[in-house]
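Example is below:
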Amino acid sequence: MTGAAEPIAIDWAAWAMVAGINILAILSPGPDFAITLRNTLARGIRAGVLTAAGIATGLSVHVIYTLAGLSVLIAQSVVLFSIIKLMGAAYLIWIGIQALRARPHAEPSGDEPARPPAARGHTAFIAGFLTNVLNPKVALYFLALFTQVIDPDTSLPEKGLYGLTMMAETFLVFSTVAVLVGQPPMRRAYQRSAHWIERALGTVFIGLGVRLAFVRGVE
């Protein structure tokens, strides 16, 4: 007689460690935070939340190929790592150049911030997705986390749980950033000097892109 399948054992101490480390990583300023901030200020809370969803979805790509063992290949292949790195750097620099070209907006009237320019929802989602998935530093981060913090004998479902937890944390944190930054007082302050803020963020994006271009893989 065949017995019922044994329940999957979860090491909750390891799970808590992964969740804690990931929160600290999310809170570190970087391209994901910058794109969420820019899209929220320029387009509103909905765009910021969609950007957060795109970032979390991009994170799922890193989770999948890390579980498949491809993160080791990316880290150890100079050519593959360089291609992803240069694509990510070029994308960030392109965003920065677009932001530097910002022009002054008409002064908003009344207490409400000016209505953001019309844009399709998928634009913000794709921006968040590409910013995350084209960042090879995330691949190195997952490689380090999954090889040093998580036991090699950890089951695939348990590793999948860790990945889903990291995606959920990422979405929740950046969605919260969008909700806070997208409040009317913040938007009104942004509208008064939008082109200067855009240009400042453009400089940040270009700096992040240049920095990413010089990132080295695992020695």
